[in-house]
Amino acid sequence: MFFVSLCFGIIGLVLWPGSAYAPPPGCSPVAQNLAACQGDLDVCEDDLAACEAECLEPDPCTQTFPGDGAGSGPALSYTNNNDGTVTDNNTKFMWEIKLAANDVGGNCADATQANRSVHCVNNTYTWTDGGDGDFTDPDGTLFTVFLAGLNNSAFAGFSDWGIPNVKELQSIVDYGTVSPAIDSTFPGATASSFYWSANTDGGVGSSGNAWTVYFGNGFVNGNDKNNRFHARAVRPCP
């Protein structure tokens, strides 16, 4: 009887559903994978929450804008590269510096534009030529004289100068000032007049117009490509 009781006791201990129970060996990898998935899910949920918090649209009732105090973006900031160019410290674009209309070194006061430096602020250009009967193509002096002059001479060591698109051109407007509407720390001269962008006006029947920015007050407007307006070149960050 003693041995029978001992056997039943051992069997009871083996079958007792206590903490000593171990899952079948085949379940261990599944449990590990489940734990890893749960960890990854926690990380993804944290990232999603951070992204949603960052991308939420600002409340128009509480958002501040330039002129309202603190402003909603970085302050305008420029670095003069001392080679006839200036870098926008926010966008990293490099801009051509214009010479004053009375600059002697650039012969800017000469009545004939062909005798002036290509950098003179008083120079004006046409967006299109129209000689072939097409008054929409980018074949005016803006491209054939101004831009070609910069790139053919590798101005400031670069041959990838371009005419800015309308958003790039507008990025240097200072809407806190007028005549000209440009920050006082932007070096060189700026005419309080229209400057060409590279963009054709996309409106119906407007292919003969290009977008311009008026640096008297920052106004953006489409104008006939046959007009003679000012120009300022830009290139990507160095």
What labels would you give this structure?
alpha+beta, three-stranded antiparallel beta sheet, 4 helices, disordered N terminus
Notes on the structure:
With 238 residues, the protein is of the alpha+beta class. It has a domain at 78-235. Helix content is 25%, strand content 15%. It is built from 4 helices and 9 strands; from the N terminus they run H-H-E-E-E-E-H-H-E-E-E-E-E. The protein has helices at 2-15, 28-55, 141-152, 166-170, and strands at 78-80, 85-88, 94-96, 125-126, 194-200, 209-214, 219-224, 228-229, 234-235. The chain has a 4-stranded antiparallel β-sheet with strand order 1-2-3-9, with no helix packed on it. A 3-stranded antiparallel β-sheet has the order 5-6-7. The chain has a two-stranded antiparallel sheet with strand order 4-8. A hairpin with a 4-residue loop joins strand 1 and strand 2 (85-88). The protein is elongated.
Q: How many strands?
A: 9
What is the typical, i.e. mean, pLDDT? 83
Question: Which class of secondary structure composition applies to the elements?
Answer: alpha+beta
Largest sheet: 4 strands, antiparallel
Residues in β-strands, percent: 5-15%
Helix content: 10-25%
Our measurement of the CA-to-CA distance between the termini, rounded to an integer number of angstroms, reads 96 Å
What is the string of SSEs from the N terminus onward? HHEEEEHHEEEEE
Helical stretch tally: 4
Question: Residue ranges: pLDDT <50 for 5 or more in a row?
Answer: 1-16, 54-70
Shape: elongated
How big is the Rg? 34 Å
If strands are numbered along the chain, what order do they take across the biggest sheet? 1-2-3-9
